[in-house]
Amino acid sequence: MARNARPTAAKREREKALNERRKEKEARRRDAKERQATRPMSADGEDPDIAGIKLGPQPLADWQIDEQVEEQAEEP
Asked: Is the Cβ–Cβ distance between 32 and 41 less than 8 Å?
């Protein structure tokens, strides 16, 4: 009962696809790291993504306000 020790063509294809996905993922990570390093910070060192956020409940977004107005109009 000898087994075929050579990998099949399907296995080689899977390994190629896996290696390609790894390379693509590494490239995405590298690009994200470069973008983060070159992203401008504000003069006071505050992160622009969270600038202006206060503790506690946040004001409603425009799309949330629109939905509330529609719900109130439908209630009576």
From this structure: no
Residue 25: inside a domain: yes
> Is residue 54 helix, strand or coil?
coil
- Hey, what are 42's tokens? 């504000």
Q: Residue 51's pLDDT is what?
A: 78
Tell whether 51 is covered by a domain: no
User: Domain containing 31: what range?
Assistant: 10-38
**pLDDT above 90: percentage of residues in the chain:** 32
End-to-end CA distance of the chain: 81
**Dihedral, 55, 65, 47, 39 alpha carbons, nearest 10:** 170
Per the domain annotation, does 18 fall within a domain? Answer: yes
- pLDDT tens track for 38-64: 877 666 777 777 777 888 887 888 888
